[in-house]
C-alpha cells in the first residue's frame, strides 16, 4: 500500500495503533502512537439516540465530535472539529469495492478505498495517498495501524477512520 513503500528521503509519517472494538457503541478506548504511548481516546457515548464518539487528547480535551447522521438515504457520519471545520463521511454506492467519500466543508474532499472490512485501505487527497490503514503491522488480534503522512491532520484522519469503521460494521 501507498505509504509503506516510501524511501527514507520521502516525507515522514506518524503511526497509530487502534483496536477494532474501539468503535463499540458506549465503549472508551485509547489510540496509541508508534511508541505505545496513549495519545488519543475515543469516548463512545452510550446514552444517545445515534452513534456518537468524542475523540479526546490524553488530558481529556475534545478534539473531534463524531455523530451518526440519521434519517438519510444512505448511512453517513459527521465530524466536527473545535476550529469549526466539519466533514461528512459516507459510503459510495458505485462499484463492488468498498469506497468511502469524505466531503470536507470548505476544503478538499478525501477518498478511502481498499478492503475496508479487513482494515486494509488507503485514504487519498487529490489522488495522493495521505494515510494507510493496515492490520498486517500487528500480530495482536483485533488491532490495526494507521500511518499518516507528515503535514496531514492526524485528528481528522483518525476521526475519518473511526467513521469508516463504524459505518462498515452496520
From TrEMBL:
Pfam families cross-referenced by the UniProt entry: LOR (PF04525)
InterPro entries: LOR (IPR007612), LOR_sf (IPR038595), Tubby-like_C (IPR025659)
Gene3D superfamilies, per the entry: LURP1-related
Family: Belongs to the LOR family.
Protein name: Unannotated protein
